[in-house]
């Protein structure tokens, strides 16, 4: 399978090269960053009350005065699905004064 030559495409190609089966649903984690804890918690509450079926973790970032909202979504990790979900999280994060900081997957050993 080939992917577009952009950041998402390169990550998916690396995952494929590492032997990850991209034809099966995976837990994909999308990261949002906020300067205010109240904004981070507001996004988390919105996501949890939505129909996104996401699990959410709010925690302080390693950078001082920054809050992380990590949203895990079980999904088929196709390029189109990743781009669409990342755009959705970008819009939501912007609505709550934050921004999307990428995505990743954790592989079980």
TrEMBL record:
SUPFAM superfamilies: Hypothetical protein VC0424
Top-level taxon: Bacteria
Residues of the Regulator of ribonuclease activity B domain: 5-105
UniProt protein name: Ribonuclease E inhibitor RraB
């Amino acid at each position: 399978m080939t992917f577009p030559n952009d950041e998402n495409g390169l990550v998916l190609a690396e995952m494929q090269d590492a032997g990850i089966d991209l034809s099966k649903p995976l837990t994909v984690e999308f990261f949002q960053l906020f300067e205010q804890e109240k904004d981070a918690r507001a996004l988390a509450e919105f996501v949890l009350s939505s129909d996104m079926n996401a699990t959410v973790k709010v925690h302080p970032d390693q950078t001082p005065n920054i809050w992380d909202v990590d949203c895990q979504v079980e999904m088929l990790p196709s390029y189109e699905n990743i781009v669409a979900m990342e755009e959705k999280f970008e819009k939501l994060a912007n609505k709550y004064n934050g921004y999307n900081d990428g995505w990743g997957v954790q592989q079980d050993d």
